[in-house]
Amino acid sequence: MPTALVYAKALREASQENGNAKALIANLRGALERRGHQKLLPAIVTEYEKLELAEERSKSRSTITPESERNRQLLELYRRLVSSE
User: Fold this and answer.
1) Strand residue runs (E) in 14-74
2) CA-to-CA distance for 9 and 53, rounded, in angstroms?
3) What is d(CA 23, CA 29) in angstroms, rounded to the nearest whole number?
4) DSSP string, 69-85
5) Residues 76, 59: Cα–Cα separation, whole Å
6) Gyration radius of the chain over CA positions
7) How many CB atoms lie within 10 A of CB 85?
8) Is the entire prediction scored with pTM above 0.85?
């Protein structure tokens, strides 16, 4: 697993638990400087955004709308019709 992804996952978990993003980012920056990983900061931000987007998409896919329910029912009826022949 890429180092930037590990940092992004840790930042995401910590921000969900704590909620104080400014303090977490300051701590992350300090940790990166101590380890000599300052150049990873843009990659960490990118990976964090990917994680956020994946969660947002997952939530939108799991939400059942009237339109999606209607499509599901129509598809089920179509499959029954096709398989009965």
Assistant:
1) none
2) 13
3) 10
4) HHHHHHHHHHHHHHHT-
5) 24
6) 21
7) 4
8) no
What is the block-wise mean pLDDT of the chain (85 residues), using blocks of 10 residues?
Answer: 87 83 83 88 91 91 88 95 83
For residue 27, the surrounding DSSP H or E stretch is helix 21-35
pLDDT of residue 72: 93
Looking at residue 28, its pLDDT comes to 86
Both tokens of 29, joined, read 């920056």
pLDDT of residue 69: 92
What residue type is 42 in one-letter code? P
For helices 41-62 and 3-18, the axis angle rounded to 10 degrees is 60
Which pLDDT does position 85 carry in this prediction? 65
Q: How far apart are CA 15 and CA 9, in angstroms?
A: 10
